[in-house]
Amino acid sequence: MGLSDGLMLRVAGSGDIPAIRTLQALSIAILQRGYLDDAQIEASRVSMGLDTQLIDDGTYFCVFDDETLVGCGGWSNRATLYGGDHSAGRSARKLDPATDRARIRAMYTHPDHARRGIGRSILMASEFAARNHGFKALEMASTEAGRPFYERCGYAVENSFFDHNGGVAVPLYTMVKALTPVD
User: Fold this and answer.
1) Can you tell me the mean pLDDT for 45-57?
2) To which H or E segment does residue 7 belong?
3) What pTM does this model have?
């Protein structure tokens, strides 16, 4: 799938994992500033990150600017709402499109490439794929920094909660969106 400004979106492969992890760490460290304090940013690393099940499932996307990874994210038909391979409480249980909402997962943009449509392109690709797999709605766990972006993309806050890591509370939001049927 092509994007503007010479950017290219494609499904992530296992060879992309090192670059994805590097991008995620940079995005957490930089783009959470102004929304979280230093302790919360550090604590958020415990619950954020890459769930390689997404890559195994073929539901995770990468955006490249030439050879440089500048964005990543995807969707899932599994029960885990958020978190990486290292996070507690993950579940590989498959969701039922008739009764469950697909998940938007692990969205990250390189700080030098923010506000160029990268996140929106990944989100649109994820919504399209989830819809094609029969899902009628999506949900995600959004950070404070991501919430305004997702609201602009049609997601609404369903509830708020705190992820507690090392005694530090990190605010998160469950956000949802109904998918419009394809004609």
Assistant:
1) 90
2) strand 7-11
3) 0.92
